[in-house]
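Hi team,

Filling in the usual template for the complex we talked about on Friday. All components are listed, including any nucleic acid strands or ligand strings, so the model treats them as one assembly.

SUBMITTER: L.P.
PURPOSE: interface mapping
COMPONENTS: three
RESIDUES: 409
SEQUENCES:
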Amino acid sequence: MLHADLDAFYASVEQLLDPSLKGRPTAVGTGVVLAASYEARSFGVSAGMPAWRARQLCGHLRFVPGHFREYQRLGDQVVDLFSDYTPLVERISIDEAFLDVAGAGRLFGSPTEIAAALRRRVREEVGLPLSVGVARTKHLAKVASQVAKPDGLVVVAPESEREFLHGLPVSLVWGIGPKSQANLARVGIKTVGELAEAPGNVLERLFGRAIGEKMASLATNIDPRQVGHQRAASSIGAQAALGRQRPTGDLLRSTLGYLADRVASRLRAAERAARTVTVRVRFPGMRAVTRSTTLAVPVDTTLTLTEIATELACTALAQNRSEKEVTLLAVSASRLVAPSLQLALGLCRPSAPAGRDASAGTVLAARWALDHSVDAVRAKFGRGAVGYAAPTLSSAARVPEAFRELAEH
DNA sequence: TCTGGGGTCCTAGGACCC
DNA sequence: TCTGGGGTCCTAGGACCC
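RESULT (copied from the run log):
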């Protein structure tokens, strides 16, 4: 099993596109660091950091806004190259993938030889540094590639798995983030070896049953996962950071309209409709609340989704009146099912011949027709041709569309 | 002067049903 | 009148990943 991971991907691409950045501390992003080159990391700059903080740490940091379409193109090019060696490629994100090369030995050599070939070809043909981990299982291969970074190759032989894992920090285990790391440190567990020796009931008490069991199995290296293919998404969402703003009617209308439009058009493109709609509102200080509702009639219509999202947001705000400003709004659609206009119309008019329900059905049919016209125009002339044009939204559109599209898996 | 955008999975508690 | 156990669905929150 191989895990291949492009190093500091966005930043490496920028250094490739603009050679004057090569060897220099480089960060991609505008208000926040989306990716930092290894030169920048040596100053303590890391992804997720506010830009002002990054500049504080590294005065001569070069900040670039990002070439998001190039990331997609080059990421695809690299993954295409992987499939020269095996059809069993599981892409996890734009810049990393698992490769099952168990059956490729006859043609291309041992896993270690294939890993070396991948690194050489990605460097020569694409121009990017690639780290690769080689091991018996997915989890171990992933840990190995993290250890290999930057621009390295780490092979874990089956007989030295325990030894390899033993001294590593628990944060390298997949699923152990900052909070879990802190919780484990509190009971004296810092390394994977210590985690493996911890009694099951301790982990269960700290993290609950499922996660406790998973941690134990990863630490003791029982990892049955195979390389699979992509599953269909189980939710579709969109969010917009707003800085600090008072939640006026105008702000809610424009932002939720824009977000609902993004979500609903993606639902329609995927031929899905959502039974559950969730809205998230974040306040200064990062505290966030969510409100959700599950519908009898699945929704994929922009205006209907906008109305539902607005109601949910108003509920959340009404229940948090002490908060005077919001910093983020998000709309998410889940419990996805096949869309059915017939079902929707049928449920809208059970028996009433001329009452409210019948007119609700008419409204729905009109909205359905409107959405499909909008989708058709956009398919022909592009997203900005009609509808909620991002540029008219001062706050929601601070992020380029291309970045949003890149983040959609 | 408190950090982007897009996701997954887990847990707890309540409602409801048998 | 109060009691038991189990299952499903839903809401809200949180941790984590790229």
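MY TAKE: Chain A has three domains: 1-155, 162-219, 235-408. The radius of gyration of chain A is 25 Å.

Thanks, L.
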